[in-house]
Amino acid sequence: MPKGTVKHYHDNFDFCYLLFVSLFVWAIVSCSEACPVACNCISNQKWECTNITSLGDILENSSRAVRELTLIHITDLNSFSDHLGTHFNASFEYVRRLEIQQSTINRVSALFVDSFPNVERVFLGDNQFSCSEHILTLQRWGSKIQKDKPLQCSSPDGMAKTELFLALKTISRVKEECPSPCRCVVKSMNSQYSVPNLLVNCSRSNLKVIPDSLPKSWVIELDLSHNQIEDATPLFSLPFYRNVPVLNLAHNHIQDIQVPNDTSQKNHFRLLNLSHNKLTQLPENLLGETDTFSYQPLIMLRSNPWMCDCNSVKMFQTIAMKQLHIIGDFIYLTCEGDLEGQLISSPTSLHRLCYVPAVAIMTIRCVNIVFFILIALVLIKTAFDLRSMYAVGIFHYFAHLLLLPSR
Q1: Looking at the whole model, is its pTM more than 0.85?
Q2: What is the 3-state secondary structure (H, E, C) of the chain?
Q3: Per-residue pLDDT, 20
């Protein structure tokens, strides 16, 4: 073989070797860049990713168009939106199959759902769902969600084992019926023994009047605390408030409550919080005839400017003795006015207000005796005068004048 030919052969071999090594290194680098660290890339278009915190973690340093994506052990689909943008949305437009497994799903952002515009099948089996308004976005996938496995709520406790989309439909309806600016939270899908299964939270909403509507067909716990409400009378006159056994009206400006005499509108509260208002007297008929009910409502009345006199303190203490614990914070009620800070529950208050000094009693007795003596003297004098008049014939004279002789 000619010498030049051998040298040319070796040069070609070296070139091919270097080219092979370069291609090998490029393939390794390309693969390492294309497949995220948190994922197992089964093929070019099929990934399984575990314990990621953002979709941005999957596509960082990668532009591969994945078609089948599986997410495992995800805790919050809402946090994925932190790093999403136009680039990532475009990259996920090729995903046709999305599967989420072994995850606790308590939030799903709209941006997460929008990141898969062309997904055809979504698998959500083998997950735990915290059913609330924070996962209502799942409804946007609609029929794309495959129901090969039962999808049920795992929390809250009152909604456990409820079919997922039935719960989401109910939550969506409640959200539409919820009075503005309140927040409505479904606590359970059914209610037994008048236990509230819907919380309507209107606290700190700058309300001056109570809501004139509430979601229907629910037993409601209504929180109206920390507002500027002055008139609470509609609570006892509007029929739909009979579905509100628990009502919090603390920290408002209520001075009086007009409770109607209609017995059907009384005693529908199991817990009524009227603390931190401006009540000076216990509203008439507020407690009603609780002896006719199988339960006694619990009423909270502390931190009101109660005006104390003998009758009002007696009434409070009588209620506390006859209907034990009906006023839940009775031992904390205090007087305003001359007895400011004095506990209504204290026997000293009753003694101080209702006690009449001995001197006053003796004075009253003496006055009564004097009046009795004067009245007796007047009667005796009148009787004596009448007898004297009869004796001298004055009565006969008047009788003669009245009985004139007939003609």
Answers
A1: no
A2: CCHHHHHHHHHHHHHHHHHHHHHHHHHHHHHHHHCCCCEEEEECCEEEEECCCCHHHHHCCCCCCCCEEEEECCCCECHHHHHCCHHHHHHHHHCCEEEEECCEECCECHHHHHCCCCCCEEECCCCEEECCHHHHHHHHHHHHEECCCCCEEEECCECCCCEHHHHHHHHHHHHHHCCCCCEEEECECCCCCCCCCEEEECCCCCCCCCCCCCCCCCCEEEECCCCCCCECHHHHCCHHHHHCCEEECCCCCCCECCCCCCHHHCCCCCEEECCCCCCCCCCCCCCCCHHHCCCCCEEECCCCCEECCHHHHHHHHHHHHHCCCCECCHHHCEEEHHHCCCECCCHHHHHHHHCCCHHHHHHHHHHHHHHHHHHHHHHHHHHHHHHHHHHCCHHHHHHHHHCCCCC
A3: 53
